[in-house]
Design a protein that fits this description.
It is a single chain. By secondary structure, this protein is mainly β. A hairpin with a 4-residue loop joins strand 5 (about 100-110) and strand 6. The two termini are about 30 Å apart.
């Protein structure tokens, strides 16, 4: 059992490292080396050192021959060229093509990275290189931030072409020792750009022992590759488990992953995932099923291909009592689209069907759609959408509820010199004996003319910004379900005035008038303004590199809106508002910021209700990037009591990073919850991280996460205990694995079952 666990943990380590190695290491290696001229395929050279200069400078050579642009150096050669140091027993190059061949104890060094080998060919103009019987030391900067430490690779030779890199007899590691603690060996390695790393004849060497091998080992290069398997652990719903994955290559870009999982509570899980790419036809098909006390499984298909003049896309998923997302349910989700280009537009046919079935409830919904978008030489655009929707559902009583309808929507716009015209038609049509059918969005049809200050007077106009429109059409009265003819006019204006050096005033005003065929009419007036005082001193750059003005910033806003008359249409009803809003922020000093905000509602005052709105206070004290305290305090003027107090802080203590967040519910006079987290508390070679999330309403822990990492030089042996006691799929999960330090952090630590950060409801610490 111990050897099996060791193999599983080491394989996880291998998978995690390989996923970040492939793309960045050997971009640009060309099979032309060493016999023919190398061709640049990308920026694979280490970063250049500007201090070494661009010109060819000879620091040492026993003999030198220069013939025009051709150069030939022998004997302990030391050169500088294009920001690089070149060392070798013999160097042959061309300063015009900037291609240099290094032979014998060759070294090519830039800034913080270098390549060594029996032979190196460097193309400085195209920024690529190739080597034989050599090695490369690449810095995190070379790998565009994917790694946190240097990467070391060895190989007998390397080659590449567009989208694919190949390395023969490769060894890859992030350990900086001459005899590394671990290395990934492969007879041949392939890096398929943007897809995966494929290692053939794969072996994992750790502590001078081969502890895992496989004919083929695959590592995805997508955003969420997950842990490659074997994996060993324990969770509440699966029990103790061992999960394995094996890969078979069908073609250059076609792989099948086979999965075999043994779970003490569920039984045996068997699955396969086929990812295929045949040019324009590509997709993914997968199946997974559990055989045991609780049977269930999942099927999934994502497929795209050209078909005739257009392109077909199909996505489907079937879940039958799948324990992760559909326990006790049968879920079927299918959708497909067919898109065709039509001149200066596109036409799309769509289909969708979703069904859910449980012991007590069944539901099905279907959708068929036609979408057509077109552009014309006159600048006009048209958009047509026709869809048929039907739903059926039945519960425990057996009574079925169903509804079917056609939705038709058309809109067309035509720009003119001084205005734009839009014609819209929108209608929902019931089909058959549809129950609970009602539509309040019909427009049958409606013509709208729109213009702005810029269209009327040009972009250089100094007049206030104005937006005006006139609409004529028919809509539905939701109360009577009858059609109402409507003429509607509205205009809005706004402008910003600089009254003084420290005072700005922004004003706005609007007018709306609606007239209806049922002999009703309504007009609406709205206006308001915002004064801003900025009594600022020097600029302060905080620890997040954000530039903030030091001093006081205050805002006073007024807004009024009132309607007169009556409208039968909900979309024209605006209500009434008459309120003042006030807020200020004061950067008291470099480390302390205070802010306050509230409002006063004149409409509430007229009705004899509390006019003052919520009073919000905030204080933010930051000493440095590791130490800060923030507090939020809210006073509820309606209940005349303090409602919420939030407190968040982070600091360093005993060498560890700490965070403490709490919330006090003043209405109930209790602490609503709190989150305590600490990172990187060290005891010799042991590093500990802890996260606790507590609920004051239940007086219990919602979550407890513990991570213990033992330092193994270039790796950590990690024990994770994640106990999520509330929410979706609550329970405990224990994992034991090897983590490579050079890789960026990640994983489920600090996250809930749905991926949310623990404690994020009031400033969580997770992650």
């Amino acid at each position: 059992m111990r050897s099996l666990a060791a193999a599983a943990l080491a394989a996880i380590c291998c998978a995690a490292t390989a996923q970040d190695v492939g793309v960045a290491v050997l971009t640009g290696i060309n099979k032309a080396f060493p016999g023919e001229q190398a061709v640049g395929l990308g920026q694979a050279l280490p970063p250049k050192d500007p201090e070494k200069g661009d010109q060819l400078i000879t620091d040492h050579a026993e003999s030198a021959e220069i013939n025009g642009t051709q150069v030939h150096f022998k004997g302990g050669v030391q050169l500088r060229f294009r920001g690089y140091t070149i060392e070798a027993e013999e160097v042959i190059g061309d300063t015009e093509t900037e291609i240099f061949e290094l032979k014998g104890k060759a070294v090519l060094e830039g800034k913080d990275s270098k390549v060594v080998g029996a032979g190196i060919r460097a193309d400085f103009k195209n920024g690529t290189y190739a080597f034989t019987d050599g090695a490369a030391q690449l810095s995190p900067e070379t790998l565009t931030g994917q790694l946190q430490e240097h990467l070391y690779i060895r190989g007998s030779e390397g080659a590449g072409r567009e989208g694919l890199l190949e390395i023969e007899d490769s060894r890859i590691t992030t350990c900086d020792l001459e005899d590394p603690h671990f290395a990934f060996l492969a007879r041949s390695s392939e890096v398929i750009f943007g897809d995966r790393v494929l290692l053939k004849g794969f072996k994992l060497r750790a502590w001078n022992k081969t502890i895992f091998s496989a004919p083929t080992f695959s590592v995805p290069l997508d955003d969420d590759p997950g842990r490659n398997l074997p994996e060993i652990g324990q969770s509440r719903d699966e029990g103790f488990y061992i999960k394995t994955k094996f890969t078979t290559q069908l073609a250059e870009k076609e792989l099948i992953d086979y999965k075999v999982d043994v779970m003490s509570r569920l039984g045996v899980g068997l699955g396969a995932e086929w990812e295929y790419d045949r040019g324009e036809t590509r997709g993914l098909a997968s199946a997974y099923g559990v055989i045991g006390p609780q049977t269930g499984g999942m099927l999934r298909l994502n497929h795209m291909q050209p078909l005739g003049p257009g392109r077909l896309s199909v996505n489907s998923q079937v879940q039958n009592s799948y324990y992760r997302s559909a326990p006790g349910s049968i879920l079927v989700n299918t959708r497909g689209t067919y898109t065709m280009p039509t001149g200066k537009g596109t036409t799309t046919l769509g289909f969708g069907r979703n069904s859910s079935s449980t012991e007590f409830f069944n539901s099905t919904s279907e959708n068929y759609s036609l979408n057509d978008n077109r552009r014309f030489n006159t600048g006009a655009n048209t958009r047509l959408n026709v869809s048929y929707n039907s739903t059926r559902s039945s519960g425990f009583s057996g009574n079925e509820v169903k509804s079917s309808r056609f939705d038709v929507r058309f809109s067309g716009t035509q720009p003119f010199r001084s205005f734009d015209a839009e014609l819209m038609y929108q209608r929902a049509i019931p089909v058959g004996d549809s129950q609970n059918f009602f539509s309040s969005s019909d427009r049958t049809p409606m013509l709208t003319l729109r213009t702005t200050t810029q269209k009327l007077f040009g972009s250089g106009s100094k007049l206030p910004n104005m937006r005006t429109e006139l609409a004529l059409g028919e809509l539905v009265n939701p109360a009577t379900k009858e059609t109402v003819s409507r003429i509607y006019f509205k205009t809005d204006m706004s402008r910003t005035e600089k009254l003084q050096e420290a005072v700005n005033f922004n004003w706005n005003a609007g007018f709306r008038q609606g007239m209806y065929s049922d002999d009703t009419a309504q007009y609406t007036l709205n206006y308001g303004g915002r004064f801003t005082w900025q009594l600022q001193g020097e600029q302060v750059i905080d620890f997040d590199r954000v530039r903030r003005p030091k001093g006081l910033t205050a805002n006073l806003s007024y807004r009024r809106m009132q309607s007169f008359g009556f409208t039968p249409l909900f979309i024209d009803r605006t209500g009434r508002s008459d309120s003042l809003l006030f807020d200020f922020r004061n950067q008291v000093q470099d480390h302390l910021e205070l802010s306050f905000g509230t409002g006063y509602d004149m409409v509430q005052a007229e009705r004899g209700l509390t006019p003052w709105q919520l009073l919000n206070f905030r204080a933010n004290w930051r000493w440095n990037k590791d130490t800060s305290v923030q507090t939020w305090l809210t006073y509820d003027s309606f209940s005349e009591s303090w409602s919420t107090l939030r407190f968040e802080s982070k600091f360093r203590m005993a060498g560890a990073r700490w965070a403490l967040n709490t919330r006090f519910d003043a209405r109930r006079s209790l602490w609503a919850g709190g989150t305590l987290g600490l990172r990187d508390l060290e005891f010799g070679k042991l590093n500990a991280s802890l996260l606790l999330d507590w609920s004051g309403y239940t007086n219990s822990l919602n979550a407890m996460h513990l991570q213990l990492a033992y330092d193994l030089h270039c790796m950590d042996a990690v024990l994770e205990i994640m106990d999520n006691r509330a929410g979706f799929r609550s329970g405990q999960q224990i994992g034991l694995f090897i983590r490579v330090k050079a890789l960026p952090g990640g994983g489920p630590y600090g996250q809930g079952r749905r991926g949310e950060m623990i404690g994020s409801g009031f400033g969580g610490f997770g992650g």
